[in-house]
Amino acid sequence: MTISTEFEAKILRYFHVEKWPVGTIARHLGLHHGTVDWVLSQAGLPKLERPHRAAMLDPFLPFVRATLEQYPRLCASRLYAMVRERGYPGGADHFRHLMQHYRPRAQPEAYLRLKTLPGEQAQVDWGHFGTLTIGRATRPLMAFVMVLSWSRQILLRFFPDARMASFLRGHEAAFQSWGGLPRVLLYDNLKSAVLERQGDAIRFHPTLLALAAHYRFEPRPVAVARGNEKGRVERAIRYVREGFFAARTWRDLDDLNAQADAWCAGQAADRPCPEERTLTVRQAFAQEQPRLLALPDNPFPTDERLEAKVGKTPYVRFDLNDYSLPSTHVQRLVTVVASPQQVRVLDGAAVIACHPRSYDQGAQIEDPAHLAELVARKRAARHHRGQDRLAQAAPNSRDLLLAAAARGENLGSLTAALLRLLDTYGSSELQAAITEALQRGVPHPNAVRLSLERRREQRDQPPPVPLSLPDDPRVRDQAVRPHALADYDQLSPEPHDDDHA
To answer: Disordered: where is this region (predicted)?
Structure first.
């Protein structure tokens, strides 16, 4: 039920000052008498103290009050079913309307203004700022916000996700920007911070505990349903939305983060400090910074690590994209290590591939050397297949190829030339010609071809006609049945007697 503040003030004045009954107030203001009753009940005036006529609910009021006192959140439909079982004759809608007057009001909770010491605490949270389109990928635009509770110095960093690696990088950026860190970091019940919570029993994320051990701070989650405990970071996120992100244009994520750094160091630092109104945030941070914990000598590792299985193709999948690697590592388990700018593929401790990171979707990031190596291996495999066929048809071809290799000849072109001679002259002739070429000390296909031609001329045979067949063993080995020529004789007309006359 919604009613203006002006009408509420008039109802209360007419009832308490003018002593008007509810009906008179309702008629004068043009309201339903139930609305007037509701305003008076919200003001704390018990309904039974007002003049009223007997109602169907009166005999059931002691039961209703006792039940609501024991179960204050019991829904009206369930309470209606209970009084119906006890003989209440009224309707459900009217009963639900009456329950607004008799349901006990929750006592508003008062909160103390929380104060912290300089260098004592910072609050951390994520803010969602829409989506980010990179190529074919649509990713969430997430803002990591950390604010020092005393000086209200803000660290703002945007990421294309809210994963643990981005969570760690946000911490690292804040600590490096401030040149130190507070003793306590206060978190909402984020998945990156709290894995499980049962009452006061909390199970922190092990990576967050490792980060806390490295920098020696205490991670502390806020109590459940206690947003006031992290009000500083909530207000900081609202300030970022209204004071920085609204109507802002940017080219890419790097440009947005550069503008965010400038805003945190400029406009956000020049605003008044809520803890000390006589100071700006910049001046308060200058007082707080010496009280921060010192940073260790080495930063916490924030690279993403993933064990991945390489398939039949020399690519490994990481974050929606495929990255090439040497073909010698297919069907193996590798480790992908990724920073915001680079993706490395490791086999044990050895780096086998390194690529710039892509935030696209379905892209293939390739190293030309990996593809060239794969093509060379495929060509070498074809050469080996040709040499195996030669060795099966003419075993002494291995000796010829070894002798040619010793002379620095190209084995690929030699193998191809010998295969053509094999297809033209047959295996037995090729075997004999290779033997003759080896005896003459000329391990070259030209010597083999001359020997084959000489042997053909000695047998007075016509030159062979090479068949141009596809390089497919299914076609090469297929048997062809010749057609019967008698069928063609039937096509010619039979000779007449006049032709022999």
So the answer is: 453-501
